[in-house]
Amino acid sequence: MASLDDLKKRISSVKSTQKITKAMKMVAAAKLRRAQESAEKGRPYSDKMNNIILNLSNGISDIENAPKLLSGSGEDKVHLCVVMTSDRGLCGGFNTNIIKKAKLYFQKILDEGKTLKIITVGTKGYDQLKRLYGDNIIEKISFKDSKNVNYFDADNVGKIVIEKFEKKEFDVCAIFYNQFKNVITQIPQEQQIIPLKTSENEENSSEDNYEFEPEEDEILSNLLPKNISTQIFKAMLENSASEQGSRMSAMDNATRNAGEMVDKLTIEYNRSRQAAITKELIEIISGAESL
Amino acid sequence: MSDEYSVEIVNPEKSFLSKDDVTEVVVPAFEGEIGILKDHISIISFLKPGIIKIFSKSGEESFYVSDGIIEFKNNNLSILTSLILNLKDIDKEKILEIQKSAEEELNKSEINDQEKYLLDQKLEVLKSIN
After folding, report:
1. Is B58 in contact with B83 (CB distance < 8 Å)?
2. Euclidean distance between CA atoms B9 and B4, whole angstroms
3. Closest partner CB to A213 (pick from B8, B29, B78)
4. In a mutagenesis test of the A interface, which of B46, B76, B79, B113 is the best target, namely the one with the most A β-carbons within 10 Å?
5. For the domain that residue B17 is a member of, what is the CATH number?
6. Which residue intervals of chain A bear CATH 3.40.1380.10?
């Protein structure tokens, strides 16, 4: 059995850990509200953008000459995956869930004999992927320095992706992120951004005839790169809300576990203290008896 | 019967402005300024750097935009832009900052004609604000 002193030390160390996790939970809760707000505020932009593109691509008459970003390069050999994770740890299964989803996809791609290229956004994703897929990672990006999620960071990622597409370095691009549903549930998502998938929300498209100025394809070729940045930005917003939510519930659990542990250790401490006292008493009594 | 319609301006961070008593909006479209009145035909266009003017019952407002797309449909005007500033509470230093970065861009050799045109426009507008 551990000595009284050891137990005392453990109790105090668990207590201070508990203090830290509690503080982290509070911070995460405060940040979560902000992140959630901005994720919700960011939705109209990406929704509208999607709608306009949908209307535009319906209006396009000449599919053959449609911009490559919309129709794809016509091949399906090289896949680029943008895996978006957090820069900080201690947020429960947040990063692991994204990585798990991404790894499934990677395996599928590799099994089909296609080439895989990876861009990691956020240091945690890089750490988890470098051992297995180190050779596939062509770029790692981190926004550790920027305090809040902002559009210009997303735009930079978008530009890198588009630049690589124009150099014909890949044919299909997918992004991986966590969609924020609520504090407890975040759903890892896989979204294909190049070529753009429009079929799923066909119902929303209107029959309206638009006037375009300048021509459709010119607008489209200007709009599509922006859409990619927008999608990435949306993913980043969702991700940051998910990260805080995930961290909050993870830290809540940790605090509770620490509390349980303190209780258990305190009981053990009291027991051994009593045992020590009893032992001393017995010693005294038996000493007195022997006189 | 009124001649008002609604306008919504969104940037990636949030919904910047939403009004439903607008009588006319003048936007700096790529091929020249367009004034949009009620019951305009559905239109999609994109913007060059310039000034958006919004006329409503409550007065006139002006905004600087660096780029954007507009969609007008069923008397709803949506303006999507990545950078928008209200001219009323604009920051001189901020303008100079944008101006400087645009000038730097312009001095790079590998820009194409369209980018050059847009940057020239941007500088012109920025100078006119200051």
Report:
1. no
2. 16
3. B29
4. B46
5. 2.60.15.10
6. 34-250
Alpha-carbon span A226 to B68, nearest angstrom: 9
Q: What fold characterizes domain A34-250?
A: Pyruvate Kinase; Chain: A, domain 1 (3.40.1380)
CATH 1.10.287.80 residue ranges of chain A are 4-21+251-289
Distance from CA of B18 to the nearest CA of A (A): 12
Q: Which two tokens stand for residue A110?
A: 């590799």
pLDDT at A62: 61
Asked whether the beta carbons of residue B42 and residue A210 sit closer than 8 angstroms, the reply is yes
What are the distances in angstroms from CA B66 to CA A211, A254, A272, B44? 23, 47, 73, 17
Q: At what angle do helices B92-107 and B113-129 cross, to 10 degrees?
A: 160
Which phi and psi angles does A282 have, rounded to 5°?
A: -60, -40
Based on the fold, state whether residues B17 and B47 are members of the same structural domain: yes
- Count of structural domains within chain B: 2
CA distance B68 to chain A (A): 9
Topology classification of domain A4-21+251-289: Helix Hairpins (1.10.287)
The boundaries of the domain holding residue B70 are 5-86
Sign of CA dihedral A227, A229, A234, A239: positive
Residue type, B114: Q
B57 and B81 inside one domain: yes
B4, amino acid identity? E
Q: What is the pTM of this model?
A: 0.82
pLDDT in tens, A225-281: 888 888 888 888 889 899 999 999 999 999 999 999 999 999 999 999 999 999 999
- Does B14 share its domain with B75? yes
The answer to whether residues B31 and B114 touch, using CB atoms and an 8 Å cutoff, is no
A179 near A238, Cβ under 8 Å? yes
Are B68 and B10 in a shared domain? yes
How far is it, in rounded angstroms, from Cα A208 to Cα A200? Answer: 19
